[in-house]
Amino acid sequence: MKGFKKLMFLMIFAAMVTLCAAPAITTYAATSSTTTTVKNGWVKKNGKKYYYKNGKLVKNKLGYKIGSSYYKISKTGVCTKVSEAAGRAGVQLESIGRESTNSKTLKKAFTWCSTKIAYKANCGSPASGQTKAAYYSIYGFKNKKGDCNVMAATFYQMAKVLGYDAKYVTGYIVSGYDSNGDVILANHSWVTITLSGKTYVYDPNFAYVQHTLNNNTKAHSGYKMTYTKTGSKQQYIYYSSKKKLLK
User: Fold this and answer.
1) What are the tens digits of pLDDT across the range 179-196?
2) Helix 132-143 vs helix 84-96: angle between axes, to the nearest 10 degrees?
3) Residues 123, 136: contact at Cβ < 8 Å?
4) Which of 70, 83, 94, 146 is deepest in the core (most CB within 10 A)?
5) 33-65 as b/e, with b when 16 or more CB fall inside 10 Å?
6) Which of these, 172, 242, 236, lies nearest to 208 by C-alpha position?
7) What angle do CA 164, 166, 169 make, to 5 degrees?
8) What pTM did the predictor assign?
9) CA–CA dist 190, 149 (Å, integer)
10) Is residue 98 exposed (0-12), middle (13-18) or buried (19+ Cβ within 10 Å)?
């Protein structure tokens, strides 16, 4: 019996020694934490400025408003600050939709100026140091209302943004004749664009009056006219700011 007890003691002792010598195993729950950083705002690289919105680089914009400022953004995303007039013109071009060619986009811009700007007289005047083209275009883009000055100025700014050699012109048109047969002149504004050395007249207000108000579908569209053809077809006859006939 003593031998049996001794054997049992040795077996229990051996088991205890084995348990004590065994390494402790601890199990950890695998955890991972991934933080995704979305780029937003300005990034400056190699002296050039880029702008991200919702994690995407903004690219290829004729006009884009960031804060209170306006920018033109290249196809690679480089941002160049522009004037409010040019910026609003670019934004409007993006809004009406750019076409496959600049010439098609220009025609679309002309249609917008002559159909989407409701006629309104007395649109105010430029502040000191501000050009008529800047003031009237900003007014038109903001209010979608205006007179010949506004219609011409908005088209002029969009043409410039598209890269055309455009000029905002102020002068006169023939509004009638007096009892002596002499012309009666009225203030007017229009745009000229020089293409391959030749100057053409673009008059959104002409299109508005002839096609929208008078429903005169036989009249010229007002798009890409010449001074000589304008007068010969009983359309607008243009005079310079010095009241000299333009032909």
Assistant:
1) 998 889 999 999 999 999
2) 40
3) yes
4) 146
5) eeeeeeeeeeeeeeeebbbeeeeeebeebbbbe
6) 236
7) 170
8) 0.83
9) 7
10) middle
**Amino acid identity of 173?**
I
User: How far from 160 is each of 66, 89, 156, 206, 207, CA to CA, in Å?
Assistant: 21, 9, 6, 20, 20
Residues 111-168 have pLDDT tens digits of 999 999 999 999 999 999 999 999 999 999 999 999 999 999 999 999 999 999 999 9
Written as six digits, the tokens of 122 are: 């007395």
Q: Quick one: 90 exposed, middle or buried, by C-beta within 10 A (0-12, 13-18, 19+)? A: buried
